[in-house]
């Protein structure tokens, strides 16, 4: 069974990613919505007076600038002993997923690294243009031409740096703000404050996009709002599960399937119980995990006479009952909604996204009752 550190180093991929390349030992994945930005750049550039070669260079340069921005985060994180699991290219930029969250003093430098890379790129281009006697700024800021290519690339990097330094989640500026606020208040309160600022800025950006009839701005505002909201919810979740172990939230009353069972057997078990994910046993050994999604897919492709052995996931997530819940939760991402809990190679439970949600609701209710009792006992 892999160690807990190995489990944490193999998170589930963000769904919707298309294509992967490896750069400096870091997997770089492309979300399908990222290609919408590429299309937008092509449409925008096609209106200009540049050659096809210049347009291609401009698009590749924007892509490269965003990628170098994220690699800047990754390299500084590595200096603090934090490994970058992967970089996901999104419409609003990139997302460097780290093995662990940086501490407050580390996060400032990790967050600053990305914008600094863009400023260095822009500064280097402007310095080159000045030394070669070329006008550092284009005459027409709304048109890309072969002559204005380098200044426009430099300007794009300035825009990337400025946008990411906005003091609102999920931008780098929001992370810097969260880090600074963490010195004066609990981390979850600092995160909530930065996330609320992010959602407020996204709302104003979206409203301006509606008034200006700018769908691209509305699109960016939507992603910023969703990112800020997710950060706020994740922070609240971390508070509720802090100090808890996996055994507090795992399912101990569960059913299993045998390696030789059919898809029909699995479907009958799915209908007769509330369970959605089933460990598959070969003798007393757990050989796989059959999820509800995999079961339905197998029913459609193989039919009820197919075998669960052909549909199960052999690379399932494994945790121990004494593992911190905060370390186990990241394993329940994407299409993976279940992790198997082992105690000394013996299957003792399931940790599912559904049961975790119920655990969080119960914790929130308990905390609310405790706060209410404290307020009632306070002297008037």
SSE blueprint:
Blueprint: H1 4-8, E1 17-23, E2 26-31, H2 34-46, H3 52-79, E3 84-90, E4 93-98, H4 104-131, H5 149-164, H6 172-181, H7 187-211, H8 215-241, E5 257-258, H9 263-272, E6 278-282, E7 285-290, H10 292-301, E8 317-319, H11 325-328, E9 338-343, E10 346-352, H12 353-377
Parallel strand pairs: 2-3, 5-6, 8-9
Antiparallel strand pairs: 1-2, 3-4, 6-7, 9-10
Helix pairs in contact: 3-4, 3-5, 4-5, 4-6, 6-7, 7-8, 9-10
Question: Which features does this protein show?
Answer:
disordered N terminus; CBS-domain; globular; three-stranded mixed sheet; four-stranded mixed sheet; 53% helix; alpha/beta; 380 residues
Description:
A four-stranded mixed beta sheet has the order 1-2-3-4, covered by helices on one side. Strands 5-6-7 form a three-stranded mixed beta sheet. It has helices at residues 4-8, 34-46, 52-79, 104-131, 149-164, 172-181, 187-211, 215-241, 263-272, 292-301, 325-328, 353-377, and strands at residues 17-23, 26-31, 84-90, 93-98, 257-258, 278-282, 285-290, 317-319, 338-343, 346-352. A hairpin with a 2-residue loop joins strand 9 (338-343) and strand 10 (346-352). It starts with a helix and ends with a helix. The protein is α/β, with parallel strands linked by helices and 380 residues long. Helix 3 (52-79) packs parallel to helix 5, helix 4 (104-131) crosses helix 6 and helix 9 (263-272) packs across helix 10 (292-301). The protein folds into three domains: 11-165, no CATH class; 184-242; 246-359, CBS-domain (Roll), CATH 3.10.580.10.
